[in-house]
Amino acid sequence: MIPAAFDYVTADSADAAIAALTEHGDEAKLLAGGHSLIPLMKFRLATPSVLIDIGRLSDLSYIKEDGDQVAVGAMTTHRAIENSDVLKAQLPMLAHVAGQVGDPSVRHRGTLGGSIAHGDPASDLPAALLALGGSVVVKGPNGERTIAADDFFTGFLETALAPDELMTELRFPKMPDAKWSYQKFNRRAQDWAIVGVAAVTNPMNTSVALVNMGAMPLRAEAVEAALQGGASAADAAAKAGDGMSPPTDLNADANYRNALAQTLVARALAETGA
Amino acid sequence: MTIGTPMLRKEDPKLLTGEGKFVDDIHVSGELWMGMVRSPMAHAKILSVDVSEALKMPGVHSAYSGADLNGMGLWAAPLPCAWPVTEDMVNPPHFPVAAEYARHVGEIVAVVLADSRYGAADAAEAVIVDFEQLPAVASLDEAVADSKMAHSDLSTNKAYHWALEPDNAAVEAAFANAAHTVTGNFVQQRMIPAAMEPRGVLAVPSPHGGELTLYSASQVPHLLKVLIAATTGLPENKLRVIAPAVGGGFGAKLNVNPDELLAATLSNKLAKPVRWTETRSEAAFSTHQGRGQNQRIELAADADGKVTGCRVHLDADMGAYMMLITPGVPLLGSFLYTGVYDIPAFGFTCDGHFTNLTPTDAYRGAGRPEASYAIERAMDMLAAEMGMDPAELRRRNYIAGGDHFENFTVSSTLAFDSGHYGPNLDKALEMADYDGLRAEQKKRRDAGDAKQLGIGMVTYVEICGLAPSRALGGLNFNSGGWEHATVRMLPTGKVEVVSGSTPHGQGHETSWSQIIATKFGMDPNDVEVLHSDTALSPLGLDTYGSRSLSVGGVAIAMAADKVIEKARLMAAHMFEAAPGDVEYENGSFSVKGTPAKSVHIAELGFGAFLAHDLPDGMEPNLQEQVSFDPPNFAFPFGTHVAVVEIDEGTGNVELLDYIAVDDCGNQVNPLIVEGQVHGGIVQGVGQALFEAAAYDEDGNCQNPSFLDYLVPSPMEMPNIKTDYTYTPSTSNILGVKGVGEAGTIGSAAAVMNAVVDGLSPHGVKDMKMPATPQRVWNAIQGVTV
Question: B679 with B564: CB under 8 angstroms?
């Protein structure tokens, strides 16, 4: 509950943050809202020797329409996303899911980029990113690149983000008419999901992403394939656990998580009309 | 703003604006922070402790192993256990820092002192301890099995066997002749008390030596003073203990802890202030936990559902050591296993067992919630067995048939002061619309809804007003049960009340002011309450067991009455009348028949201060004191109804509605009563649905933070509906009973009765606490876990 000693530097621009990352390498961590990193540091499970505070990069906090996409700055808080009129109109599920994260004080500090970069399989927003088919814009010493959501999460708390890269933006295709559902199952309102399901149904397809059903945020590929192949929603939902290796913890064992995933996917698909 | 008025708390403006000073807010120059090196193993031999690296770290003052401290001669005695429940109870010596063996994860094995909190934490990490791991007794079940020992020098984990068996032949006969019997096997899981303010301590030696002031986040500064003196040999009359603003305790601050003894002795030895504030995880590892019992209860009943016998056996988890009242907690519940029912034959036995887990001790209700849970779950099991409505079964068994009674001796040998159970149940069932709920439940069952209703009720009784000192003596508890009060009329008409009752969030200053306002006909804001500092309030036995009002508050009322009687003699002298002719009403004295000529008690206070014209032989000053030792306990009761909705697809249990009709006798401040009821209910709901200290097979606590230890929040609670009945206690002049633990004593069983009721169509007869979604879902699938 008392973190180990660390140095603290502030970055006043994205380039300064990248330069600091390049200088300090693996020993450094970016500090955005701090709501994933600080708890780990207090348990001394993370002991970065340098924290690069990007909390002052106000130019990375925005929500703007860009053609058939919506661009969200990486430092945009969950609270701003939850209350955004643009997102409520164009990507109502994203606004809704942001409102399901933690509690109000977490949502005022925590950022979309921080949550995605942390890549916690139990977090809500990575599943929304996957289900909405979003992409991640990152910047490093060699310039900018865009990574598709499906390629971004690579393992337990691991992502395609290189140690010297800064996430700057999240991009989402507009889908104002999509049917969507987010099913979050937890024991207390402010907790992480024991299992969560994000489902988006468009005229051509349904995408389904799962929270806390494996080492990283995952698409429910078996469900999606079954639906694509013409299976009924109920039959497709029964495949929610296929290919998954859900964790066992104090709240749930793997068997129960599989059952929860099936129930919640069925409920989600009933809501989206898939 | 007199007795019975819902006055806003006098304490709140200060606390709500951040002006309350907690231990961690108090700083003195030159203070050293303690950093604790704790055992990472549940059971290990300590081979060596190397503090050399820690000593090289910046800001580090010194570091000590357990052996170092033993060699310094700091301890006159081991940590105290005030309740040796039997003559032959095993009580292994327990010192603040382990020297040879560590017997639970989190036990202190070395302490470092540094000039900052962070420096102390870093230096503690640099201490190298070489352990030899030993087999750990990691659960109560393992302790009972007794195949490995929590203390390697003992041949059994069993610490004691205690029995309350007034008439075993009667119990045997009841079971032999029973038409129905039920047996409940219940597990009271370990609970982490989780007070909002963690524990903390600051010891400040006087600059000229010899005297020591100890600030502690404690419920019991008076007990702490005596026991620090007894444990360390520091002279009691050189010690001052202050409990400043204290943010909740729930029993977890009713102890004498290693950190308190370390701060006292090291600050005395080093002539430097020494402090420590626990982290939330340290609270989980090292501050005592609650509950931890396996219960077996059997009921025998005749064909009409009249319960004729009750037999109980407990196995109780002591943890690694006996703390202040560890072994006595089950005894506090032993007298309540017959509940509100007239059950003629009763027997109770309890075995205490050592484990390699954090010690257990008092936790809100301490023994009584466990007892209430067992009898109330068993009554529901009997109702289910007989196909009888649980409310009807309860009615058939109430003491005095549910009518009003006074001084009824139950088969567990205590005399209940007063009760009136029938109307209390009626009121709760009416508020809940019980018949409507049953109809809705049937509708959902018939329709096969995904969300099913469960309805549960509890009619509890508990023991408050701890305690008649003789009764404690009879139980071998090494403390009195009295409380002390001084009431002082100051020359300017203000009143000082000195109370030995030590609040940690209960609002004593408000309640005591209301008592004085009523007695003296004055504004409660003209009353100042002095407490929680052994220099200001030298006599006291502190706050636990819902005793504050029914013992401490009553002492204040009695001291006020003595002030009034002295003032009456002054008024008689002034009016040249016989004292018997002087009437007193609302603060004013007058002679019978001439009400126009009067004198207020505050004016007499000034007269007593001047002492110019006192009756012959009367001492100056208007102040009186009382040490009140209650003649009997007080027995509050109530009916709680819980309504849950069970999601059969996920196993989730949502508490839809909660109705509480409590009877704590007369009420001084109904707003404070309401707050206690709400908080108590939430704490019991926590045990029923959310909380459990989880240990792995090696004895590691797996949820030592609020990330994983789930304390319910307001989001998990419905709007609690409360009402009250009022059956005055016969144990004291105010007719008050106590309400600090009542909610907790009723709510866990009410919720679990509702959960089991909701699952009964699946053949479910019982469910372990907490009723997690996984457990409930498994039960629906027919899997018992």
Answer: no
